[in-house]
């Protein structure tokens, strides 16, 4: 009898341990404070345009900060006119960030948010560097500092646009996406962007190994990809109507024609 009771007790202990092991992940990850989901809920506030998360608020602030240093950098490029390509990039920066800054301030006002009025320390350092530069060093630093900054903002825009639940933030992300991509293209059109440095910086900041097909074997000829079936009109384009473009800077049409290739 004593052995039977002892064996039964061991079985009960084992069952209890198994139940605790199953319940622990649910408690520790779904409801425990400090997890991503709990942080999202805890830092989100309701607004008439939808829930406003900490990431949403950070995005609006970053749009404002970008304009506080990239706008002056564009003005400086227009004044210096070291080359037609740099001057054109400066005009795009001025027009685009004047538009985005107005949009960010409008969204912040409707969301009852405070925005900074000065660039941060790093951005002030970049402006000081450009001010001290001369000749080809200025052109090279202008193209690369601004291209790197726009690349980081471009990634942030995509993340926020994909996850935000706030309609005002979603609209701002749409306009930021269009404007930032335009700036990336016009900066690359200067011919001074160091793409190897951008790739190295991106690899250094990555947290996981990339996945995908292996690189081609040297000496082999890759197979031609099979095209998509053509639509009803005989072209390979979409057969459904595309939505209209998002709003663009109003004064961009009056700026000098850009020199980049679409």
Describe the structure.
The chain is mostly helical. The protein has eight helices and no strands. α5 runs antiparallel to α6. The relative contact order is 0.12. The C terminus is likely disordered.
Helix content: 55-70%
The H/E string reads HHHHHHHH
Basic shape: extended
Beta strands, count? 0
Proportion of beta-strand residues: under 5%
* Count of separate DSSP helical elements: 8
Question: What is this entry, summarized?
Answer:
This protein has helices at residues 2-31, 36-42, 54-80, 84-110, 121-132, 135-163, 167-188, 195-205.
Explain the layout of strands and helices.
Layout: H1 2-31, H2 36-42, H3 54-80, H4 84-110, H5 121-132, H6 135-163, H7 167-188, H8 195-205
Helix pairs in contact: 3-4, 3-5, 3-6, 4-7, 5-6, 6-7
Looking at this protein, list some descriptive labels.
mainly alpha, 8 helices, 262 residues
